[in-house]
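fyi for ur records
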Amino acid sequence: MELRDIESCLPPRLHTFSRQVLEIYLHGHMTTEEFRRWFHMPNSDYLMLGDCIAQKVDPHYIPEAKLPPSITLRPNNTF
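which gave:
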């Protein structure tokens, strides 16, 4: 997958750290769970962007119904 495939999810300018995490993820060197944990680190506004990207990249990804307050990933079946 390439950046142009997920352009609709990206802001006009993406933080350098998040761009690096995204590139690692798109090259297949990071799981979706790892991507969701690290992508938003410099900017919590990126939480929803990460969700959008994960939905486009990973056909098995199930969007979180509610992002946990601790910003950690949990299985969808536990609350």
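The helical segments are 16-26, 32-38, 47-57. thats all i got for now
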